[in-house]
């Protein structure tokens, strides 16, 4: 299959932006021990994504590479082991321009301690940081998928959930972390920060009973 070429300057700009956002996310404590992956759409057929196994606190432009929307590497190196979870979103959602995945303490405890297949966030003013949300009087249901080392199967499961109308802004993977996406890196980071904050709040509230 032939792919439309991406621009080199778009790639360089994406690599700069992803390295900077990765270091920022690491600083928040949401990407420990090389966990997490981040990507940006370059065009219809390509995305820039973190290489596998990189320390996100030390992320540099050279830690970013290009994949096609089938998840295949373009050029040398090994892209994130979870690349197919990014490309599933880009393929399905033409307006999706950025995907961020984190491994926070809150998302891990919440999904390991409570067996539910979703977490609901409701009534929080901070929900207005999410794309398209205008009022605190909003109920956001975040699906929780079981963790798997079969990333292709997990991506297919996410796709089926989206067919059913679930997973509008984000999803969780049990004992693993959070995926969220938006039109651009700024909106995606804002959304991530809101969701991680609200998940931490939710965890505290459940601890308090
Ligand atoms: C050390 S965390 C295990 C892998 C993972 O869940 C992750 O997010 C990082 O994988 P990658 O291949 O993108 O480095
Ligand atoms: Zn992960």
Topology:
Layout: H1 8-27, E1 37-41, E2 46-50, E3 64-68, E4 73-74, H2 83-92, E5 98-102, H3 105-113, E6 118-122, E7 139-145, H4 151-163, E8 170-173, E9 177-182, H5 185-208
Bound molecules: ligand L4RZE5RM and zinc ion (ZN).
Ligand L4RZE5RM is lined by residues 33-37, 50, 52-53, 80-82, 101.
List keywords for this structure.
209 residues; L-fuculose-1-phosphate Aldolase; 9-stranded mixed β-sheet; binds ligand L4RZE5RM; binds zinc ion; Methylthioribulose-1-phosphate dehydratase
Question: What does this molecule look like?
Answer:
This protein is of the alpha+beta class and 209 residues long. The chain has a single domain (8-208), classed as 3-Layer(aba) Sandwich (L-fuculose-1-phosphate Aldolase), CATH 3.40.225. Helices cover 36% and strands 21% of the residues. It has a 9-stranded mixed β-sheet, sandwiched between helices. It is globular and about 50 Å long. The termini are far apart. The chain binds ligand L4RZE5RM and zinc ion. Zinc ion (ZN) is lined by residues 35, 82, 101, 103, 176-177. Its EC number is 4.2.1.109. Zn(2+) binds at residues 101, 103. Belongs to the aldolase class II family. MtnB subfamily. It comes from Alloalcanivorax venustensis ISO4.
